[in-house]
Specification:
With about 230 residues, the chain is an alpha/beta fold. It has one domain (about 15-20, about 30-225): P-loop containing nucleotide triphosphate hydrolases (Rossmann fold), CATH 3.40.50. The protein is about 40% helix and about 20% strand. The protein contains seven helices and ten strands. The strands form two sheets. The chain has a six-stranded parallel sheet with strand order 1-10-9-2-8-3, with helices on both faces. Helix 5 (about 160-170) packs antiparallel against helix 6 (about 175-190). It starts with 12 loop residues before the first strand and ends with a helix.
Length: about 230
């Protein structure tokens, strides 16, 4: 399991050697209380922290999980397919959907618009699925506000330089975009204290194990509460 380094923020659970669940969120309203053991699992962190890799591994190893496809106005990367990683929209169409109340959350991030459709998320939760959201830090805050019973995980990088290395190695962003993401990273990392769990992503295998353990513990906790 991944452990937080000594400089990691205080105030949130860090993934440790054994799976553990957060305290029950008594009094919170949210979809999780509706029916079945489904819940929202929000995974966030600064660009380059590795949250996408961790989410992909979780989806492959836990059939209880489904991926929430967000919408964005950014350009599609060559490795992406519309409707798989994101739904790619023109700004006009995105804002039309905002006006229609289509999104659970939406935000202007790194000069682009991002949003999470509400209806598919809530439908899957009611069907008993763990709906995994891979969102930016601003989006993570909005989801936690809109769905207080969501389980939130912050993927924390070992250093700012590690973000630069990963972003540059990814080869999908222009230099000015990378610099913008890196400028935003310290402020985003400061938000980690507001999350239920922190995974220090300094070792990929341990980070994989940490996210799986969080999923398993929270799923067991929800099922136990309903039994």
């Amino acid at each position: 399991m991944a452990q937080a380094a000594s400089h990691a923020p205080k105030g949130a659970h860090t993934a440790a050697a054994g799976a553990h669940s957060v305290a029950a969120r008594g009094g919170d309203s949210g979809v999780r209380a509706a029916s079945g053991p489904g819940f929202i699992l929000v995974v966030t962190g600064p660009s380059g922290a590795g949250k996408g890799t961790l989410v992909s591994h979780l989806l492959k190893t836990r059939p209880s999980c489904v991926f929430s496809v967000s919408a964005t106005t950014r350009l599609r990367r060559t490795s992406e397919s519309n409707g798989r990683e994101y739904e790619f929209l023109e700004p006009e169409e995105f804002m039309k959907r905002v006006e229609q109340g289509y999104f659970l959350e939406w935000a202007h991030v790194h000069s682009r618009l991002y949003g999470t459709p509400a209806a598919p998320v809530d439908e899957q939760v009611r069907a008993g699925k763990v709906v995994v959201l891979d969102v930016d830090v601003q989006g993570g805050a909005s989801v936690r506000a809109a769905r207080p019973r969501a389980v939130s995980v912050f993927v924390y990088p070992p250093s700012i330089n590690s973000l630069r290395v990963r972003l540059e190695a990814r080869g999908t962003d222009k230099p000015e975009v990378i610099e913008e993401r890196l400028r935003n990273a310290p402020g985003e990392m400061a938000q980690a204290v507001h999350y239920d769990y922190i995974i220090m992503n300094d070792d990929l295998e341990r980070a994989h194990s940490a996210l799986i353990a969080i999923h398993d513990a929270e799923l067991a906790r929800v099922r136990g509460a309903l039994s």
